[in-house]
Amino acid sequence: xxxxxxxxxxxxxxxxxxxxxxxxxxxxxxxxxxxxxxxxxxxxxxxxxxxxxxxxxxxxxxxxxxxxxx
Length: 70
Prior knowledge:
This is NDUF8 factor. By secondary structure, this protein is mainly alpha-helical. The chain has three helices and no strands.
């Protein structure tokens, strides 16, 4: 039994990943701005500070990748 097929499929998916996620640039930038703003100054970054932006980015990633997995 060979795992070669599994690795080939995985490698193919990973190669397509950057192109699939390129459409999420706006959400990634918004999340990055939020994290940078929340971590600026003496205040510490806290959990859920940027939850809305994170969820938007995660949803975009999921939409972008879903068709490529099938």
